[in-house]
Amino acid sequence: MARPPQPPAVLAAQWGPHLNEAPPGGWDDEARHPAEKLVETHCCFCGQQCGIQLKVRENRVIGFEPWEAFPFNRGMLCPKGVRRYLQGSHPDRLLQPLVRTESGFQGTSWDEALDLTARRLQEIRERHGPDAVAMYGGASLTSEKSYLLGKFARVALGTRHIDYNGRLCMVSAGTAYKLSFGVDRSPNPWSDIPRAQVVLVAGANVAECAPITTDYLWRMRDAGGRLIVADPRLTPICRNADLYLPVRPGTDIALFSALLHVVVREGLHDEAFLASHTTGWDAVRASVESWDPRRAAEVTGVPPDGVAGAGAGEEPQPARTRSRKRAQEPRMDSTSFGRRPARRPGTCDLSSGPPSGGAAAA
Prior knowledge:
Layout lengths: L7 H8 L13 H4 L4 E6 L8 E7 L2 E6 L13 H4 L15 E4 L2 E4 L2 H19 L6 E3 L5 H15 L4 E3 L5 H12 L16 E5 L3 H4 L1 H12 L3 E5 L12 E3 L6 H14 L5 H7 L3 H7 L5 H8 L3 H9 L11 H4 L31 E3 L1
Parallel strand pairs: 6-7, 8-9, 8-11, 9-10
Antiparallel strand pairs: 1-2, 2-3, 4-5
């Protein structure tokens, strides 16, 4: 196992992380030297691709302006997007290749770094075979870069081992979407969320990982919709959910099977729509027949009334409290965070579409 060439404290002092709380020249520099132009682009931190306008002077980013006309985020940005432009001038940003030595990391030229990398890759392939080398990409690569990375791995290196970070998240979701809807991504736009009657957020830490989506959920709730969250952790979005399902890790399928069991049992599905637009419905219905809320509760840890309430799109009745004083206070238990009285919605007409109400999932 590789060991640090220097103590961690020494490496941290030399290479960071260091705070960078102000742009070069300070916050007043832009007032003295205004930007030359605004460049409309996207924030690259996550897949939501919020619109942002970057202030540019002498081909350097010096600030940003909200882009209210961009339809997705409408000028809003999360903390990461707000501070994104500071990375270009961050003191920890590496501007040249570094070579590991016994005394630490030393800067070198690109020619020397590329020659060293090519020589070491050839030595490893000759000694251990091409599959001894692996390539690891990232979800932020453009399509062209991903194509070149694949060609480099399979043609130049001859290795079969190439992967990227999406294997743990996006690949599984894309495969499920492809099998269910014929496309490898969500078939409905984000604009459907504010129009939904019920939104189920399953395992997504929306408030911290996709803050702009939170606005869509608030608009949905302001319009009378209900928010259900299924997550092993009590993430921030759970605090404002109408129903919180504290599912045990690894038991998602049991929970979803029970939810569908309740939908079928209560007759909340549209048989005509299913017959016209789906295949394999009979097999699916048979597979969830035995997953009643009590059985699901034993597996998932979610109380039966929570499973039943989520399946029907309504809030379970509050549990009994130990004292009258606590009964008068705002309460929070393991199945619900009620802010509005429970109500029973109409049947879920899947063919009605978002404009007239329906259901969405995130």
